[in-house]
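Quick board copy: two proteins, each given as sequence then tokens.
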Amino acid sequence: MSQPPSESHGDTELVVTTAQDDAVLVLRLNRPHRLNALNESLVDALEAALAQAVDDERRAVIITGTGRAFCAGFDLKEDRDDGGLRQIDGQQRLAAALTSLPIPVVAAINGLAVGAGCEIALACDFVVAGSDAQFSLPEVLIGTGMGGGTSFLLGLTIGRIKASEFVLLGEPISAAQADAIGLISRVVEPDQLPAAAEELAAKLVSRPPHAIATVKAALFRGLNQTFADALSAELTEVHAAHFHPDSAALMESFRHRSTGRTPA
């Protein structure tokens, strides 16, 4: 597997990739000296690692952070002489990569998920957080706007009223609060976070990959289409899946279990 690019600070690897097994890839953001805040190089490295996961036919991806933070947002010490256009472009590219990836992505939130860090989590398929995790979208506090597709995804995820409270106040919320409003999938004790993310990834790996890819794409597509379009797309997808060899075997096995007969 090709290695992501390095940055000048200590020549450290920006995204540490660890193969849990042949099916699951763990990506660990690795700028702990900046609480894993994003810069252009880290965005590029994460994009490359996600693309490589597809090329390597991984079945699930886990994203987490090194040290005491998942990601503290976009690094405000980085040069912003273009009015923040490179920053917003990077955030949007990550959101597009995560939501379009045909592989399920589990965000394992250790500590802070601020700004772009929270937006990365929002673009993942599952968000497992340690009980000490903290989420915030403080853009309004620094006089800027949301990026990374959050203006679209947040209200659909937690509802407009809760989204308004979250972003217009800009105040941090705990993992328990995030769980209560539906921002995350589940909360675990901090020392159980890696195991919980791996257990979830293992369950996802046990599902047929073509079905996972089809349903994930349908869920995101369904956020931005009419009901009639959704019905039409589902007809095409279910028909295609019916003739997939893996689906045929699964359906045949299910029919035999439901009737109590043993396959020949």
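And the next:
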Amino acid sequence: MSDVVLRLKCRSGTFPMTVPLNCPISILKEQVSVLTEIPVASIKLLFGFPPKSIHKIEGTIEDAGLKSGDTIIAEVDSSSASVQQSRVQTESNTLKHVTDQEVGDQVPLILRKVVPADNSCLFTSMGFVLGGKIDLSSGDFMRQIIATAVKDNQTDFSEAVLGKPNEDYCEWIRNPNSWGGAIEVSILSNFYGMEIAVIDTQSGSISKFGEDKNYPHRVFLIYDGIHYDPLYLESPFTPGEIQTIFPTNDDRMLDASQMLANEAKSSRQYTDVNRFTLKCLDCGCIMIGQTQAQEHAKLTAHNNFNEY
């Protein structure tokens, strides 16, 4: 099934979106909600000229007549009873989220937002860089995105790539105790139409997923061997604003991230995956390093591990 590349316009900016042609409108609204911070129940979607409403259409992207290159507009549905309540909650609980602006002339001071270590840290971190706040419900949605992408492309996502049969992987990634890694980051980069730069504190390197796609925006995550956290910038212009999405043609954030990676590496702010101890929550077995954990998973089909 081919993908559709869309442009999303809202009050906070313009975003690229890549979604499957068979993506339900309901799932599209969930994705738009993450990018715009508009509650799903309050989103009004329009496209075409003159703009026509599609937010109440049942069915898929294809059913609505959307195709690559189309622009969709997200607005707040003023008829929604939840609009005022949601607005008050957002203003009181989160910082204003700036998506795309100049970072200033100097190398910026990039900051790390610590998210819960609950096996869904990758997805919580992605939710933060997309929406500017910690949302622990991001995991379920993103796990489903990944499972769908893997199931729909069994050629690229073969057993040799996944380390397990395609069907088994799809079931595994839906499990809230399963960890995300490079495969999952790559799929999310493609789905959101955004480059994801992952800073590895053990090697001091930066991996840029989606670098070959020429995406206009980039987000940053930091990885210490077992845990992901999102990176952000406090606005140098307006107190109380944060920025998590940056233009890919501005390398100052990459320079700042490299400085952070070098500092973390020199101070050993990482977990050696060949030495850390894990406990299997299914049988209680204790293992040293990811190799033993992978072997244990192959032999027993147990996938629920915690650092011990």
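Board note added afterward: The longest helix spans residues 138-152.
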